[in-house]
Structures are given as C-alpha cells and as structure tokens.
Amino acid sequence: MQKLTSELRRLYLFGDQPFDPAAPSIDLVNGGMVRALAIDFHKAADEQHWVRLCDVANALQTELGLPAPAVSVDGGSAYRLWLSLEKPVPATQATQFLALLHKAYFEDEAIELGRSRIDLPPGLNGATGLWSTFINPSMGGALAEDLGLEMAPPESPQAAFLESLHSISEEEFAHALATLRHRDDVAPAAPHAKASTSTTPGGLLLKDATLEDIVRHLHAMGIEPTFRHVLKN
Questions:
Q1: Chain segment 117-142, per-residue pLDDT in tens
Q2: Coil, strand or helix at 35
C-alpha cells in the first residue's frame, strides 16, 4: 500500500494533503488551486463510452501535446481519465480547460465542471458493490459493461500503472490551454454551424465562410493566402 499511496500523492495530491487509503475521497480544490483533473465517460450503448474515452485520450497526446493520462473505472457507471498537473493551477483556469476540452472533443457527453471532491481508486462503490480501479488502457474495453471489479484489485499492479505516468508540466498545460482557446476562437458561431461535408481540419465550414473567415483561418495555419482567380458572373 505504501508504494501505491506514494504514486497517488506524486500525481494527484497537494504536498502533505491528508489521505486515507481506506477512505480515499479527496479534495480536488485546495486554497482555490487544482492539481488533478478527472473526466467521466458514462456508460453508453455499443461501448461508445470506451470509444469516446480513447478518442479524447489520443487527442490529449497527439493534438495537445500532453503526457498520457491514467484510466480507471469507477465501479459501475463510468470510465474516467485522470490528468495530473505538475504545478497546481487556479480552479477557474482548470474549469476553463475542461470546458474547452469538452467543447472541442466530446460535447455530446455530460461533464461535471468544478467538481470539488472525488474518490481515488481503488475503492469500493457502495451503490454497486464493485471496486473502482486503475486499468491498463490496452485492456480497458474488457470492462466496458461492468465498469468495476468484484474483488479489490492487487495493489502492486495499481502502483505499476501509475509509476510510468508523468504530470503535465506548466509549459505543456499553458500550450494546451492556448491551443484550445485558439480552436474555440476560430470555430464558427453556433447559429452558422450547418451540416456540411466540406470542412477544414479546424472546423471552418467553407460553405458558410466569409472571405475574412477564410483568410483568418489560413493565417492561423501559418499560410499566407494569394488570390489568383477572378469571380465570374
């Protein structure tokens, strides 16, 4: 238990924050600051909760440049991604990051913003009688139906899952937040978001875009536009 507790402290707790492995509920906010973020993906048909989690976890790494998050099941209702921050950030900034991430990648999934307390795995879910546990991402789909274990998970593998993970550095978080803010700035306003198959990677709807929209989008991609064609009547 000592090794697992040490890894949980390294990734998700503040300094000497009190923690009892037998009752693993912790405060996510301490003095208005946050150093751990948790995102739930609730059970859905055809294992779409697992598919969605994988899509978001991949985007965090490939598009936002963040280290791999931890993955867990909560003991009955959801998968959960865990993001560890090397240095705590203001709670308002953490909430903005989650809101922008939600809007960018999984807007159709309910999300709890501003959560102040959470249970760290492993722990018994009193409502279902199943155990929450950190899981190996490569095996996560096998738990898509139950989302928990019937017996307490061994502590050594739990610690091993966490041991290989890294916290998000101050620079990495700032870059990811700036990327999400930029993506939100260049996204089309909701009233103009009509269905279309003609889109750019940034989400710009070419069918509805003005000339200014297109130029702004190209500048955001580091492209200086030139206009060689003449519009004909």
A1: 999 999 999 999 999 999 998 878 88
A2: strand
What distance in Å separates the CA atoms of residue 76 and residue 78, rounded to the nearest whole number? 6
Supply 52's token pair: 């969605």
Alpha carbon distance 69, 155 (integer Å): 19
Asked if 1 and 154 count as a contact pair (C-beta separation under 8 A), the reply is: no
How far is 83 from 213, CA to CA, in rounded Å?
34
- Separate counts of helices (H) and strands (E) for the chain: 6, 8
Q: Are strands 117-119 and 78-90 parallel, antiparallel or unpaired?
A: unpaired
pTM greater than the 0.85 cutoff: no
**Burial class, 158, CB count within 10 angstroms (exposed 0-12 / middle 13-18 / buried 19+):** buried
Contact 107, 212 (CB under 8 A): no
Q: 10: closest CA among 101, 112, 90, 85? A: 85
Using CB atoms within 10 Å of the CB of residue 189, give its burial: 0 to 12 exposed, 13 to 18 middle, 19+ buried: exposed
**Average pLDDT score over the chain:** 84
Which segments within 51-146 are labelled E, that is strand?
70-73, 78-90, 117-119, 123-124, 131-134
- Domains annotated on the chain, with CATH: 2-169 (3.30.70.3300), 187-233 (no CATH)
Query: Is-contact 169 35, C-beta < 8 A?
Result: no
Residue count (the chain): 233
